[in-house]
Design brief:
With 414 residues, the protein is of the alpha/beta class. The protein is built from 13 helices and 15 strands. β2, α5 (102-109) and β3 form a beta-alpha-beta unit. It binds pyridoxal-5'-phosphate.
């Protein structure tokens, strides 16, 4: 039995995982009932209907915040936060090089310039020391990405921000109900931005949301107007005077309706993902050649995915061989996350945010070259990403652990 176990499936041995992973329906009767109610309102406009308002007030209650604003996507939510914070032409905004491009788009639409800080090698979140080292007199904000459900180190980040008078925008697109020392991420900085695209913990098809953490009504009004063409819709009056440029990022009642039903499932989804991810770590910690997805003690990660790193010096295989062997054991996985750090994208290499222009890059001396964030680059070269899902069973996790252990043991340098 033991002999048989040790022979990798890729070499003709038996697979660790022989049963399919747990699956389930993320939408049900609750969403259908909300959608029917939305349609029966005879309007799908957020300001006339009640669904987006309800979605926001449920979210506010769950997060303990007074104000939030709906948006059409997570990308839009981040742009709204930046616009409301007054980030503008030529400002520098420090952010993470391992993220979805939605983190960066709003920065460039404000004609501000993304500056990349390096990451912690084990949490994959921004290293506060690197943030501070990138501050210049142009720096106006930090967009903190809480990657994969794991909180960034917010205390030192907030301290640096206060010292240098920077706005802090939390990108929580991958981090619902993630806790930093007990506090929910998205409530610590000036704004918290969430995405409800179809790949996140909860889905409204597409959608997003911004919390306004000052709790000030005036800030709420500015934020709200920035998502709605600068229309000031408060109480019964509508003020259309155009003082500033603002896009139309409105959420429809259909999305709000689905959001209400999805929010009711959020705690269960996050609790299961947290338990599953933490169990993987428990099962592979101290395994030679493997560095688990590190969560600082006192924090709660809700694992949008699980990402371990291989120590190639401790193993006799390449990352690709490790991944293929694990796949053959019946454990799905991917090499890395995004293919490369975002500053290696053509947009940054060619300095072309807009067709036929080098604006706003030409306003500043910021450059983007290989080696800018060595730890981030190294993470992407040695990481293996494992999907985590709330529908997975305890057995699925047990077998994921057994698969990783089997492959790591086979390839361990002796
Ligand atoms: C998904 C995501 C976004 C963008 O959200 P969309 O709703 O797709 O626009 C931004 N940042 C991060 C970290 C994300 O994962």
């Amino acid at each position: 039995m033991l002999m048989n176990q040790e022979k990798l499936a890729i070499h003709g041995g038996s697979k660790v995982k022989t049963t399919p992973f747990g699956t389930g329906q993320r939408f049900g009767e609750e969403e259908v009932a909300e959608l029917v109610e939305a349609l029966n309102q005879n309007t799908l406009f957020y300001h006339f209907g009640g669904k987006v308002k309800q979605f926001l007030s449920d979210f506010n209650a769950m997060y303990g915040v007074r104000y939030s604003v709906a948006a059409s996507s997570g990308t839009a939510a981040i742009h709204v936060a930046l616009g409301a914070a007054g980030i503008t032409v030529g400002d520098e905004v420090i952010t993470s090089p391992i993220t979805d491009q939605g983190t960066l788009i709003g920065i460039l639409y404000q004609n501000a310039i993304p500056v990349f800080a390096d990451l912690d090698p084990h949490t994959y979140n921004m290293d506060p020391q690197s943030i501070e080292a990138r501050i210049t007199e142009r720096t106006k904000a930090i967009v903190v990405v809480h990657l994969a459900g794991n909180p960034a180190d917010m205390d030192p980040i907030m301290e640096i921000a206060r010292k240098h008078k920077l706005k802090v925008i939390e990108d929580c697109a991958q981090s619902y109900l993630t806790r930093y020392k007990g506090r929910l991420v998205g409530t610590i900085g000036d704004y918290g931005c969430f995405s409800t695209n179809d790949f996140k913990h909860i889905s409204t098809g597409d959608g997003g949301l911004v919390t306004v953490n000052s709790g000030e009504e005036a800030d709420y009004h500015v934020t709200h107007a920035f998502a709605d063409k600068n229309y000031q819709r408060f109480g019964s009056s509508v003020q259309r005077d155009l003082h500033y440029l603002a896009p139309n990022y409105r959420m429809t009642e259909l999305q709000g309706a689905v959001g209400i039903a999805q929010l009711k499932k959020l705690e269960t989804i996050c609790e299961r993902r947290r338990r599953h991810g933490d169990r993987v770590t428990e099962g592979i910690k101290n395994l030679p050649g493997i560095q688990p997805h590190h969560v600082e003690s006192g924090n709660a990660c809700t694992y949008w995915f699980y990402m371990l790193r291989v120590e190639l010096g401790e193993l006799t295989c390449s990352r690709t061989e490790f991944c293929k062997a694990l796949e053959a054991e019946g454990i799905p996985n991917m090499e890395g996350y995004i293919p490369d750090v975002v500053y290696m994208q053509p947009l940054f290499q060619n300095r072309t945010a807009y067709r036929n222009s080098h604006y706003p890059f030409e306003l500043t001396g910021v450059t983007y070259e290989r080696g800018l964030c060595p730890e981030a680059e190294s993470i992407l070269q040695t990481a293996i990403r494992l999907p985590i899902n709330e529908f997975y069973t305890e057995q699925d996790i047990t077998e994921m652990i057994a698969g990783i252990r089997k492959v790591a043991d086979f390839y361990r340098k002796r």
